[in-house]
Amino acid sequence: MTPYEKAAQHELDIWAEQMRKPPSLINRVAKSVQVRMNRLIPDKVHAVVTAAIKHMTRAVLLGSEYVAPKPLQEQVLEVRERQVKTRIKWYKRVGAAEGGLTGAAGFLVGLADFPLLLSLKMKLLYDIAALYGHDVSDYRERLYILYIFQLAFSSQSRRQEIFRQMEQWDAHAKTLPEDINQFDWLTFQQEYRDYIDLAKMLQLVPGIGAVVGVWANWRLLDELGNVAVMAYRMRVLAER
Fold it and tell me: Which domain of life is it from (predicted)?
């Protein structure tokens, strides 16, 4: 392994231990608070989020709407990750700008941020997959993208389950159903909805929505990008 790969493996080992940890007391309390907060959120907001997630999930599984970038072939990990980091920065800037604009426009336009941000997240994951050399025209590679999404935006107990499957991805992929309708999009949607925190809800509040929208979108895209890097490192370094 190169010095870069050794450093990457060390970072990956630390991250993997975090993914394997059982939910702490703080995790359980946070989950409980999130659930209670979601009960206070207007049904209209829940309906928009649910519809957006369902549509996005089906679009990813069917391979529609998201153009599959050409996989980057025959490059060392360091070169790949340099391009990945540049791509993540670009999406964070776009997401922050979009969040600020929709947050400044008030409640009704602010609702539009949920499907827009979801679309940005999926396009980011498609780009990252290609930069790591994976062809997302493959149905199972698109499923891997959805697993990364769940890993980034789920409770710790759900992360443990997802991570176990991703650690043995080649074996697990062979057990996945060919029928996309068997994908458990309901759990997927509920976990993501529960993960959306108070800051994201504050984006809908007139007066402070713009500032909150910039910060929240930047943070969420940054978190997703970091998880995606680790998820693909896990596969690249396993092959090495």
Answer: Bacteria
